[in-house]
Structure formats: C-alpha cells, structure tokens
Amino acid sequence: MSDTLVAPNPATIPNWEADPVLTVEHLTMRFGGLVAVGDLSFSVGRGDITALIGPNGAGKTTVFNCVTGFYKPTEGRIAMRHGPGKQAELVEEVTASGLRWKKDGEQGVFLLERMADHEISARAGVARTFQNIRLFSGMTVLENLLVAQHNRLVVASGFSIGGILGLPNYRKAESEAVDKAVHWLKQTNLMDRADDPAGDLPYGAQRRLEIARAMCTDPYLLCLDEPAAGLNPRESKELNELLQYIRGQGTSVLLIEHDMGVVMEISDHIIVLDYGVKIADGDATSVRTDPKVIAAYLGVEDEEDLDVPEVREHVIETIGEAAIADLAPQPMAERAPVTSAEPAQAVGKPKRAPRARKAATGKTETAKTAAPKTPRTRKPRGTSSSDGGAT
Amino acid sequence: MMAVTSANTSPGARARQEENRFAQAVRDAAIAAFLAGVLSFFFIGFRTDIAPGGLSLKMRWSAWITAIVVVFVGRLLLNLFVFNRTWSGSSTKPRSATVSERLPDLGKWLLRAFFIFALVLPFVAMYFFPNRDRQFIDIAILIMTYVMLGWGLNIVVGLAGLLDLGYVAFYAVGAYSFALLSTHFEFIGFWTALPLAGMLAACWGLVLGFPVLRLRGDYLAIVTLAFGEIIRVVLLNWYEFTGGPNGISGIPKPTLFGLEFARGEGSFASFFGLTYDPIHRFVYLYYIIFLLALITNIVTMRLRALPIGRAWEALREDEIACRSLGINTRNTKLTAFAIGAMFGGFAGSFFATRQGFISPESFSFIESAIILAIVVLGGLGSQIGVVIAAIVMIGGTEALRNLGFLTYIFGPGFDPVQYRMLLFGLAMVIIMVWKPRGFVSTREPTVALKEKKRIGADLVAQGEGH
Question: Which residue of B has its CA nearest to A163?
C-alpha cells in the first residue's frame, strides 16, 4: 500500500531508514528446535531513542544478546555504522571481504555477528546494561566507572609496565578518567555515593549507575535492557530525563521496556516483537494504534491487562469500547498455535488501515475503517515494516 | 531499640537480668564440659600400654578430668567476656563503629612496626638468642617464602577470583628451572637464573591458563589440581632430564656480587674482614627472600591500582559485566595466571638455592593446599592477611614442636609433638568459624574521590570456585 509511495520522497523517509546507526537484517536465533527470533529486520536511527517492546518471551532480550555479542546469531547480519549515512557499499564490501570491521577515517562499519562481545563494546561502541543489574558490587561506584574505561587506561598505563614504574602519562590519563566518571556521576545524581560500594546503593541508584558505567565506555549506541523496571514514578521520570540527555550527547539509544509511560514518552521509534517476529515498526503514534500490537498486548487471558492507562485510552479513542470488549476475551489458546514463524494473524481483527500516514487525523479515520471489521488480508513481512513509518 | 529498653529498666530488673545471664553462662559451660567429657573419655581417658602377653589398659583419670575442667572454665570465660556482647546486644553497634574508625590508623602503625621488625629480624635473633639464631632465622625464611607464595597466589585467587589448586606447579617449575640451568651451564648463577625461572614459570602459567579459560567453579579447581599433579609426575618420571625421584643436588648457593658465603679467599667474610660464621649465609638468604617478597608485594599493590588490577577484581565480581564493558577477559585471566605463576617461579628458584637439593617430593599437592589455605585464612585479596596467615600456619606448626610445658598437664608420658597436627587442625577450624572470610575480609578501594571506606566482606564476591 503505502510503502511504494514512500520511497521516492526523501522528506518522508524516517531517520532510521536514512541514517541508521545499526541495522539488523534477517536475524534468526535458534536454540535447538526453538526459534527465539525469526527473520527479524529493523534499523536503529542515529541519535534516536528506539524502543524494542513486546510481551514476555517475545525474544527482545535475545535480540539484545545477539546485538551485543553474547549470543552468536544463527543467521543474519547486524551492521553497526560510525559516521553518517547508510554506507551501503561499505557494508557490502566488509560482508564480502570476510573482515569483521573496517574503519575509514570518520566512517566505519562493524559486523557485530562476527565480533566477540568485548570487541563489540571496545571497537564498535555498543554498550549495554542488563535486565538483572550486573554491577561490581564489591567495588566502589567510582571504581565501577573506572573499570568501564579499562581499554583506554590500559594503553595509557603502557600495558601496566609504565603504570608500575609510576610514569606521569598514566597518572594524567587516570585523572581524566576520574573526571569523566565525575561527569557521569553528576548526571546520574550519584556524586554523594561515589566512594560507597556499588552493592550498597538502593535499587534505583544501581540502575542509574549501570547506565553511567555503560556511558563511560563512550558508546555510539547504548542498549538498555528494561532500565525502568522496579523504578518508582519519580525515578522513571528522572530516567527519561537522563535518556534525553544521553541522546543529546549524540549517543543513540536502543531500549527494551515494559513501562509504556517511558516508551511512549521518549521513543522516536518503536519496534514491537511477538514470538520472535516483528509485528509493528514505526513511531509511537502509529505503533500504539496498530491492531496487531493491541492484540499482542491486550488479547490475553483477562481484562486486567487492559488496565495499562495509556494503551486503554488510545484503544478506546481509536477503535471504540465495543472493539475492546471484542478483543479482550481473545483466548491464549488461539495465540498458542501461532508459532514463531507465523505472526499473530488473528481472525476477526480490525483491518490494518492506512491510518498511520496522517497521524493527526488518522485516529478518527482508523476508527471508521476499523468499525466494519473486515477480515485482515495477509501481507508479506517486509512491507509491514515501512508501513507504520510512513508518517 | 535494645539500648533504649535496657536503659529504661529498673536496677532490680537489671540485676535479675545479670543473674540470669550468669546462670545461663554456667549452664552452657556445663553442657560443653559434659560433651567434652563424653568425647574425650576414650581419647584421653584410656591409654593402652604394651604389656607381657598383649596390651594393658590404663585409666588416666587425672588427664580426663583436667580436660573437662579446662573446657568448663574456658567456655564459662568465653560466655562471660567474649560472647557477652551478642547476648545483651545493646552496645555492639557503637563499639564496632569506633573500632573501624580507629582501625585504619592503628593498622598503618602496626604495618610499619611489622615491617621494621621484619627488617631487623635476623639481628634480633642473633642478639637475643645467640644459641638458637640459626633455627629462628630458618623459620623466618620459611615463613617469608610462604608469604611470597601466598602473595603470588593471591593475585590469581584473591584478586582475579580463579581458584587454583595447582599453584605448587609453578613453584616446581621455578625450582627446577634454576636447578637445571645452574647445573648445566657454569655461568648461570642465582641472580641470572632468577628472572629466567620467573619467565619460564609465567610461560607455564599461560599454558595452564589457556585450557581453563572457559571453566568455572569446581571444574576450574579440578583442572588446576590435575595440572599441578601432571607437573610433579613428569618431574618424577622424566629420569634423564630431571633425575626423577633422586632429584637434583649441588645447586649453587647465592653470591653477593660474586662473593661466596664460604671459608677462605674471595669469600664474603674475608672481603669484609669478618670471622667466618655460617650464620652469614642464613642472614643473606633471609634478606634475599625479604627483598623478593617485598617486590612481590609492591608490584601487586601497584597492579591492583592499575587498570589491569581493577579488571581482575571486576572479573571476580562479574565476568559478564566485564565483557559488556569491552574488557578482554581471556587476556585478563591469562595475565593473572602468568603474573601469579611468575612470583611462584621466583619463590621456587629461591627454594632451590636455599636447599641446595630439590626433588619432586617437595612439590606435592599438600604444598598447594597450604598456600591456598594461607590465602583463604588471610582473607582473599588481602596482602596483610596473607602475612598473618603465613605466620599462623607455618610459624604455628613450628611453634607446636616446642610444647614441652604440656607434659606438666598431661603427665610425663605425653608427647606434644604427636598432637601437633590435631591442635593445628583444631586451630584452623576455630579460626574459620570465628572469621569465615579470613583474618582481613574487608576490601580497600583502589581509588576515592573523598575518602577511602573499607568495603565489607558481604559485598565482595569470592569469584569462581567458592
């Protein structure tokens, strides 16, 4: 439908298509017979905050682990880019050459699926945090931030030989490292706790420290695995501000999050996974009105799941009370046989309409088109990705 | 809360409480004495003597009763004065706080005093114990060797958190490197062989490191244990090269800038115009191992504050987080193994020159176990803890040889030397119950913005294999 119209007009190309920092192409991750992620493709725009959402077990963390090198993907290409533009030729060149990465002045292409986890952080500039916080709890907050600057400091210490001899070169590098740590301590509001062991911090502070530690590696892309989990509303708000600040510093952010308040408020681009397959891709407005997303999130056992205020509000706005009543009792049994290869292709869902093209007026329009409940026609996978992005 | 309630109670109530506590202590001590009586009845109460026509059984009531009384009184005193605080529970907090506040300063002074004592130790021994100076200096050398080995292993186990049960292998590599080099090549003396032995041991550290990179926990311990045994068995069976069980003898003694510690021309004594005394060589050996241990300590302390040292500790805390921060965990582990092994090699080289003779028997598993016990007892990652533990472990077993006074308690037939290992084991158990994370379990941060606060043991991870 819309995707053929989008391509020729550069003004409507979303940032993540025009200037991606990371592209994931046909990523498949199998664990024995289980397909955790199946043929997933998406892009992360440079300077964007991109959210990866989906119900539990959708494969979000698996995607993260593939991107950061903790899993070796079964198939697919994950290309990280330094420097502006798509650099399509360079990506192809590196892919064909069998190299893991190639740097050419400002530009650089890194094929993450070929690189070891520590190289991804050290060379490609992808930093990550963990769902269950992984701090060095017996070390102080400041030490945690200095460990993050390991690679630069090791070189400065002359691979420890100069450091043992106490050469001034290293002392200078270390004081710079402390300065950078102090900068991030101030940003994350942890200055008072700098000399305390990381394991003594309260939960929210540990989350912030983990982000600060990741930022101390000077990443191009910061991957956050559920940064708002377990935070109270005030801490969530502070997290939003911190992420906005990080984006302002020129670091792109990719996050997994369940807290829709955080996701909808700060994300430039949202990718929705379910059963390891992408079911929606676009900006916040288009994604939250996407019937497949609503189905994946709300089409579960009981009505309690409908009580996510933001979602509920928009569902009512777009498809009306009647439709919700229709969606809610959608039983799990119907979703279960839909395996990872086949996305949630529920019957009797509102038709996927060209609502996304005009975001402002789209809502009322969708409501109209959704009302007749025409059976949804199946579309090829590749087109649905740019469908939502046509705003 | 407790402090408030106890302050509010009337004097009568407090007296009752006090009385109650005393009664409780007596009852507890009585139970302990009863248990001691039951347990020691067969071990202490009986004695079998060889008599015509078999064995005769002799009762030793006095020894048995003495044991029970000792347990009763000891337990009572402990209850009243040591466990006191945990019962009342009121004054624990402020006291521990003040102790920890005072401790850094006190610790610093203690360390200095300790260092100066170690520096002048041979002369103290020579001055105050002219008849037994050689024995004392010998024990001091032995303790120092284990301190050095403990510090070397502390890098691997304490800092990097990799449990290594085969550390003695590097000690053996160092010793055999020096022994073989010096016996095959005339021109290689102790000082030239020392760095070579260290380097060879470091190479073997890498050799061990590679296969165990991916191993964790118990599996790591088993493979390192096997590695230690492989080295020993190879030394034992490669007869043509190592001399097998006969070992290598005639290893040269260390010289001071070419001056030998012997009689006659060109020796240390004649050069400085002293009368020859064999004690000179022991003093010299003491200072060599003192210097080597000091170097080990300084290098370790410096490394700890360098990126590599922080990476070791981070590795102990969380390996996955390390990799997410771009730390090459393979190289980090290998450097820990290599540097730890290098110090083991130095110590081995010293061991060879001190003994003048080495054989695979000196490098059995028990040596690894003792070195590991020193590190664990001292507190993983703590330098001063290793020193204390080495003194307790090595000096303790030596001191237990001189327990003549126990014959006054247990009768003239009692041979304390035979109970040496029993007492030693008991002491170990008591120490580990009292201090489960070793003597010095807190960790000192390597860097601070305002002030360095020691980190409690509960937060510090122990690494693989614990």
Answer: B306
pLDDT tens by residue, B320-377: 899 899 898 888 999 999 999 999 999 999 999 888 888 888 888 888 888 988 888 8
Contact between A52 and A63 under an 8 Å Cβ cutoff? The reply is yes
Q: What are phi and psi of A342, to 5 degrees?
A: -110, 120
A185 CA to chain B: closest CA distance, Å? 11
CA–CA separation, B308 and A350 (whole Å): 59
**Integer-rounded Cα radius of gyration of chain A:** 22
CA distance between the termini of chain A: 14
Helices B92-128 and B279-304 meet at what angle, rounded to 10? 150
Residues (pLDDT < 70) of chain B are 1-18, 84-107, 258, 262, 264, 266, 269-270, 402-407, 410-414, 416-417, 464-466
Counting one residue from A and one from B, how many pairs have CB atoms under 8 Å apart? 143
Identify which of B314, B451, B456 has the shortest CB distance to residue A136.
B314
Rounded to whole angstroms, the Cα distance separating B1 from B5 reads 6
Q: Are B341 and B224 in contact (CB under 8 A)?
A: no
Q: Is A23 on the interface with B (CB under 8 A)?
A: no
Residue A199 burial (10 A CB sphere; 0-12, 13-18, 19+): buried
In three-state form (DSSP H/G/I as H, E/B as E, the rest C), the secondary structure along chain A is CCHHHHCCCHHHCCHHHHCEEEEEEEEEEEECCEEEEEEEEEEEECCCEEEEECCCCCCHHHHHHHHCCCCCCCEEEEEEEECCCCCHHHHHHHHHHCCCEEEECCEEEEEHHHCCHHHHHHHHCEEECCCCCCCCCCCEHHHHHHHCCHHHHHHHCCCCHHHHHCCHHHHHHHHHHHHHHHHHHHHCCCHHHCCCEHHHCCHHHHHHHHHHHHHCCCCCEEEEECCCCCCCHHHHHHHHHHHHHHHHCCCEEEEECCCHHHHHHHCCEEEEEECCEEEEEECHHHHHCCHHHHHHHHCCCCHHHHHCHHHHHHHHHHHHHHHHHHHCCCCHHHHCCCCCCCCCCCCCCCCCCHHHHCHHHHHHHHHHHHCCCCCCCCCCHHHHHHHHCCC
**Which among A150, A152, A175 is the top mutation candidate for probing chain B, defined by the most B β-carbons within 10 Å of its own β-carbon?**
A150
Q: CB distance from A142 to chain B under 8 Å?
A: yes
Compare all CA atoms of chain B with the CA of A213 and give the residue at the minimum distance.
B325
Q: How far apart are CA A281 and CA A304, in angstroms?
A: 26
CB A110 within 8 A of CB A79: yes
Residue-level pLDDT, tens digit, chain A, 391 residues = 444 444 445 557 777 777 888 888 888 888 888 888 888 888 888 888 898 888 888 888 888 889 888 888 888 888 888 878 777 777 777 777 877 777 777 778 888 888 888 888 888 889 999 988 898 988 899 999 999 998 888 887 767 777 677 777 788 888 888 998 999 999 888 888 888 888 888 888 898 899 999 999 889 999 998 888 888 888 888 888 888 898 888 889 998 887 777 788 888 888 888 888 888 888 888 887 777 777 777 664 444 444 556 656 655 555 555 445 544 444 444 444 434 444 444 333 333 333 333 333 333 333 333 334 434 333 333 333 333 333 3
Question: Which domains, ranges and CATH numbers included, belong to chain B?
Answer: 2-49+57-84 (no CATH), 110-245+281-402 (1.10.3470)
Neighbouring residues of B220: CB distance < 8 A, sequence distance ≥ 6:
B162, B163, B164, B212, B464, B465
